[in-house]
Each structure stands twice: as structure tokens, then as C-alpha cells.
Amino acid sequence: MVIPFRFSRRTVTLWCLLAGSMLTGHPVWAAGDEGREQTAKGQMARPGQPDGKADIRKKSVGKDRQQADAPPVETILVKARRREQMEVKLGGQAGVLGNKKGLDLPFNLRSYTSSMILNQQSQTLGQVLQNDPSVRTTYGFGNFSETFIIRGMPVYGDDVAINGLYGISPRQLISPQLYDSVQVLNGASAFINGAAPGGTSVGGNINLQFKHAGSEPLARLTGDYTSRGQGGGSLDVGRRFGRDDQFGIRFNAAGMDGQTSISGERRHSVALGLDTDWHNDDTRISLDINYQNQNVQQGRGSVVLNSGLTAVPRPTRPGRNWSQGWSYEDMHYVFGLLNVEHDLNSHVMLYGTFGGMTGHEEGNYDTVYVSDGLKGTGFGYGSYVPYQQTNESTRGGVRAHFRTGFLKHEVNAGGSALWSGASTGYAGGMVGDTSLYAPGVQAKPASVHHVSATPATKTQLYSLFFSDTMSFWHDRIALTGGFRYQHILQNSYQYTPTHYSRDAITPVVGLVVHVARHASLYFNRVEGLNQGLQAPARSSLYPNLVNAQQFLSPTRTVQYEVGGKYDIGRFSASLAFYRLDRPTGLVEDYGTEQIFKASGRQRNQGIELNVNGEIIHGLRFNGGSALIQAKQVKGDYVGNRAVGIPGYTINGNLEYDIPFMKGLTLTGRVTHTGHQWVNVQNSLRIPNWTTYDLGARYTFMMTPKRPMTFRFGVENLTNSHYWASSYTAFSSVNGYLTQGLPRTFKASFSTDM
């Protein structure tokens, strides 16, 4: 089969004319001018027409030609501007429950669209999630991986899902240009997606959706610039073809390179995506193949606070870099997904998904440990870490709709599996004395040298799930009940070899009540699940620990949530009240000895408000607030707040279309985060912080049929000095500090070809 693949609409139309017919059912930005002329000529030449009617036809053709000479520029411009608008939708891909509208889900799920990613020139997933009031982003320990905090619980890059499947996303940094939407589920999700391979995602879940060809042809070229000297661009091409548009192809290429707004830091990235799909009346198949490379040179990392500090160091000048020039990280990933859906009949659908990812990472890391908080002095530690990983992930099941009396049922049943193998190595050594405020130049230690990666861990996750959503009273009430059986197997081969093989059943109960056409109330009781806690080794502190270094049963995080949603399409809002209880480890007396148990408890409870959409004509808002109280209710520090979790967060994004200048839109964003405790004793904390972003974009017609958009923005307008996060993955140590970015200028243009 020869595929007509061209960037120009005029070229496509001419090809159709030569073929003797028009492409049917595919509106381009404006109706095809040549197509209207050809149709008119065909009618005019129709045999048996009286002469008078033929003359009328000729006059009509002349009029059509005059109209064709003046293409509907206003229509094209309006459609182009709408594509650029900030948009956040309630609902999305809800794991085993499938794609759901927000009002029909007993969970809090939002989708951030690709137009927002493009307009804000987001270069990492963390920059996209800066728009969410309930999400905050920090770095992983000692590297540049992004970690996302949702309801006070972490989501590692390892545990970001793609199309509802774990294990196939890049592990540390994710290029968002490959995805059509970024979806955030607030709350525990062990039933919806299963246990995450990295052991996180117990307080929330992040899911990405690949781009696929839409009903309209697309060929978009984008160029962008970020201060101090970072340039890049992207190409996004999509077409559908064949009878009834059966075939679709979408190609994305994006890249950037240069110095960031942090002194000495350089970043380079390449992302390539080829996404294809095919469908007929009862079958849908898609295949996605992607590649990503991220490289960071002299990246400014986190600051580790040693024990015994009496003060938190003040933030440095925002653009200062305390890392050494020999530090770097290079990450390569190849990943993809095959998805098949088949309708047996109008009531039963079978589906299967298979994905895989292979990754190679290596880097020299320079971590600063602060010993004197007042002076900001301490020492540096260098390390070389190679990391290789290969994952395979699959999910399959059946979804059936049927009635029993007055009840309507949607039954989901199936299973999932994930196989992961990782190899790594380590070489490290002391760099020497340093200071945050005057780091100086230090040589890489001789002990930091290349080592080979050897097998480290092997993880296997298997699960079976079943649910039934029963609705009645004209679908106004829907009750969901179900469970997932999960088996977790993990073998570790380095240092102290360990074997872990445990299983658990996590139930789910959800209720939705549609109180009005555009409003619903909901409730859920659901659990998060991850590998059980490991007891510490015997030491002078725990000399008689009977279960030293043993693993406990899988840890369950229990959530109760109640809330309400309102959605009229152009405007939506949601309000949620929740409580999460997560077990923590405690060493207790066991006769004359000691034993480690998961008998402690951390309770995170809060309120979340999200508002999205058009407030008045031309004025759009996205944002909200999250209040959270995360504290120990049983354990060594009862009543103390958890490290690195702010008591409240506020986000507000505004867009305003200037009425007296068509095509011009002003943008602004305010981000505010409350103070965060740095240590478990709650004696040290970092203050609250606020940043302001301003920008504008202008859409106009470069040619009569090609719209172009220019964008300009300034992030952290006031160049605020602040510590953005003090989160730690280790509950017994101080948090590590991540400094916010300095004032950053961004500019870009996009044109449809």
C-alpha cells in the first residue's frame, strides 16, 4: 500500500483531485477550496440539465470561485487559538476500570492536556505538574531524578504509569512532549493499577497517555529558547488514512541543548515517538515505539543535612551552582506498548496490553553534605553509579455490561504481570571540604572510577483483579466493589542477598451519587500496597533484635475519601476530604529481646480543592489548594509532623484573551507552598515560599492558511531565594534540601505547516 504522507493540505487535496475524488469525512482547518470547485463542476456537467439551470450553475460556480479566493481566515485563527488554550479535564484512564468521565468515578482524577505542555514549554514531567496544587516535585537522593509528592507520599519516576501500565516509563526524567495527556490520580490505587514496582504510588498515581493521530491532519513545527542559553524544538506530525480512517500514524521528535538558568549547568535531551493505530468496527490495535535520552552536566543536586545541625542553611543566590564540573548523568531508554481491544458483541470486550522498557544510566554524582548550617559548610562526596534495567509488563482482561433486573452491571476481570531485572555498581569517595556559598573547584577523587554493573535485583509482580459496578435509579447511583490479589517477589543479590515472596488481597469500595446532571458526590475506601518493611541490622542500638534484616508482610496504606464534583465541560470543580493511614516500623520489647514490627502509624489527612475552566468569556483559570496534616499518631515521635510535607499548597494559573487585540493572550501563575519540617524532631524547618510567573502568547496567520503562535514567559519573576523541598525517603534522617530555580526566561514559536 502506498501511503500519501505529505505536510501540506494543498498537496493532499491535489493528490485527491488527481485520484478523481475527495477525501471524505475529514475536515481540515477550512473546507477544501478545490474540492468545492470540483463538486460544482460535477453538478454542472450532469447530463439532462436544462440550459437555464446550467447557466445558474455556472454563475454559482463563479461565486464559489470568488469565495474560494478568500479563505475563511477567521475560522482558522479561532480553531488555532482554541488548540492553544490551557485545559484540564476531570476523568481519564482509570486503570482496570478503563476510560471514565470524572463525574462517574469514585476517585479524584484529572488530566492535563498536551496544549498546556506545549504552551508552558515544559521540558520535564515535573514542570507539567507544577500546575497541580496537590503535587510538589523534588529530586531523588543524590541524583537528578524527579520525585513527586501526592498527599504526602512519594511517586518515583520508576512508578509513573503509561496507559495504565507500570514498568515501561523512563526511570528518572521524563520528556513530556511524547504524551497527549498527563493524568493525576489523588489517593491510594493498589486496586486500580496494582502494586508499583518501585514501592511508591501509595498516596497517588501519575499516568501518561501516548499521542495518536486525530481526525484532522497535523504538521506542527516548534522552536524554543530558555535562558541562559538553551535552545531546542519539536516536530509533531499526524495523519489518518484508509477507508473510514482505519489507519493512523503520529510521529514526534523533540530535543534541546545548552546551558540552563543555573550557572554551569547544561542539559541535553532527545525524544522520539512513533505511534500507530488501526481499527475496524469491533477491533482496535495500537503500537507505540519511543526513545528518550536525557543528559545533565554539572547539575545542581540536593543538599544533605548531617545530624546535629542547629540551623538550616539559608538559600544561596538562585543561580549559584555548588556541584563540580566533572559531575554528570546520562540516561537512555527505549520503551513501547502494544494494546489490543476486541468487542465480542455490544456487551463484552476483551483487551490485552503488553509493554517493555530497557534503560541504561550512568553518572558521576557530586553530593554536598552540610555540617554547619549557619556557615553552609561541609564536605562533598563523589560517586560513579552505572544502572541497567529491563522491564516487561502486561495486563489482560474482560469488560462486560449486562442487566439483572433493575441493576446495570459493569464487570471487570483479568490479571497483570511485571518482570523487572536491574544491574548496578558503585564506586565513591570523599571530594573534600566545601561551602554552599563558595564551593570552589575540586578534582574528581581517584576512587570515583568506572565500574561494571552487576545483577542487583529481580522483581516479579503478579495479580488478579475483579470488580462489579452496579448502577440503578436511571444511573444516578453507582456502587463499585472489587478486589485485587497481588503477589510480590523480589530477590536482591548485592551486599546482603535477600529473598522476598509475599502476597496480599486489597479490596475496594466506591460509591457515586449523581445529585444533578452536572454534579456528583462520591466515596471510596481503597488501599495502597507495597513491599513490606525490612527490620534493621543488629547494632549497639538493637543488640538483641530477633528478626534483624527480615522483611515483613506487604504494607497496606488504607484510605477513606469523600468528595464532590461539578463539570459542565467548559468549567469543572472538585472538592475532596481524605484520610490515609500508613504503617511505620517500630522496635519493641520482646521479652528480654527486641522485635521489629509495623506497629507505628503515620496519618495524612486533608482537603483538596481544584477549579478548572472558563470563568467568564476569555478568562480561564486552573488551580486550587490542598491542606494536609501529616503526623505520627503512633511511634517514636507521636504528634510530630512528617518531614518535607507542607501543611498547605496553593496554585493559580490564569489566561486572559485580550478582547481588543485578536490572538493575544496574557498568562500568569502563582505558586505558594507552606513551611516544611526538616527533621523528625520538628526543631528545624524551611519557610514557606511563593513564586510568580508571567507570560503572553500571540496567534496570527502567517499565510492565509497557516497559523503561527509566539510565546514568551518569565518564571520566578522576582528571582526569589527559597528551598523548594526538604523531603526525605528515609524516615529516620533529616530531609535533604532542593533549591528552587532562578528567574528563567522562555520563548517559543509554533507553526502549522
Termini separation comes to: 25 Å
Instruction: Determine the fraction of residues in helical runs and give it as a percent range.
Output: under 10%
Q: Could you tell me the mean pLDDT? A: 88
Gyration radius, in Å = 28 Å
How many helices does DSSP assign? 7
State the total count of DSSP E strands.
Answer: 37
> How would you characterize the largest beta sheet?
22 strands, antiparallel, barrel
Quaternary structure type: single chain
Would you identify the regions where 5 or more consecutive residues have pLDDT less than 50?
1-68
Overall geometry comes to globular
Strand content: over 45%
Sheet/helix structural class: mainly beta
Outline of the structure:
This protein has 753 residues and is mainly beta.
Written overview of the protein:
There is one protein chain. The chain has a 22-stranded antiparallel beta barrel. It starts with 8 loop residues before the first helix and ends with a strand. 9% of the residues lie in helices and 55% in strands. The chain has 753 residues and is mainly beta. Mean pLDDT is 88; it is low at 1-68.
What attributes does this structure have?
753 residues, mainly beta, six-stranded mixed sheet, 7 helices
